[in-house]
Amino acid sequence: MGNGEKAEGRTHKRRQGSLNAACAARGRLQGREEERRERTTPAASMSCISVDDTCANCGKGSDAAGIVVLKNCMACRLVKYCGIKCQRVHRKQHKKACEQRAAELKDEQLYSQGHERPVGDFCPICTLPIPLPMAKHSLFEWCCMKRVCRGCDFAAQKRGMHDCPFCRTPCPRNDADKLTMVRARVKKKDPAAISFLGKKYFFGDLGLHNDIQKAVELWTEAAELGSIDALFQIGIAYYLGEGVKVDKKKAVQFWSKAAMQGCVQARHNLGGDEAEKRNYDRAVRHYLISAKAGFQESVGNIKQLFMAGDATKEQYAEALKGYQDAVEEMKSHNREMKRVHK
């Protein structure tokens, strides 16, 4: 059980190493901090304060008869319009404030969501979050697509159970059996299985031909079905140009979607992307979230930023304490027994 996981872990570590090198805390890759243009238009509708219930262009208000129905600007929600014509006329005047507020709303979402790890990061047996990196501290079961922590797997083996500790399915005997199990779940449109099969194509495991483009196709399908891991994998593909053309903007978009759903490594990578652009305040905000989820590398990056004068002592202390609290939360008797009996 978990033989394929070991091979994947080794190659994934090399792949992640390339990414970590690119996302170094001091920003070794060339980047350009996006400039925020100051608002110069004095009109009330151009501020980031919502205006009264009137059309921002012509001044019409909603009437009791419902003939005039005002609709919000969908980008910033600061102003309202009585129709598409007024919105187009007013666009040039409203554009700067609209873009500013839209960016603020996007940031509010990005930094306020994803502080809790997703369900798939928890062992289905002991229900505790799995330590990071999960490939090192858990086994991915071929039969049910569940990730079981090594503590629970160790406890099951001590009781003489050598089948899947979650669903009790006998372990596959060879790569062909493993692939059959995975494909059975893929046929049922299991997003975890589809994303997992994508990794097997990427690394050329289970006797499959190494096919990076096929991997990206599978990750795309899995992402559409709700796989957070697939979003993260697609982000790496775009960042490093694996099976697709290098597009760091798209990479950030996919990582943002994953991070807002609790993907810790995606959050960490967003911090690296901001750091390489010299947006250190934004980088630290990301790193703090991933550090508090138990990702040690994020603590290390905040430490580097602190030593370079780009993060405060308080931020480093907050990251360290948050990380230590997360580690304590992930401890269990069975996991400690597994660690001792290595």
TrEMBL record:
GO biological process terms on file: ERAD pathway
SMART domains: SEL1
MYND-type domain: residues covered: 55-98
Highest taxon of the lineage: Eukaryota
UniProt keyword list: Coiled coil, Metal-binding, Zinc, Zinc-finger
Organism (species): Thalassiosira oceanica
Coiled coil spans: 313-340
Family, per entry: Belongs to the sel-1 family.
Keyword Zinc-finger: yes
Molecular function GO labels: zinc ion binding
Protein name as it appears in the record: MYND-type domain-containing protein
Gene Ontology CC annotation, any one: endoplasmic reticulum membrane
InterPro entries: Sel1-like (IPR006597), Sel1_AlgK (IPR050767), TPR-like_helical_dom_sf (IPR011990), Znf_MYND (IPR002893)
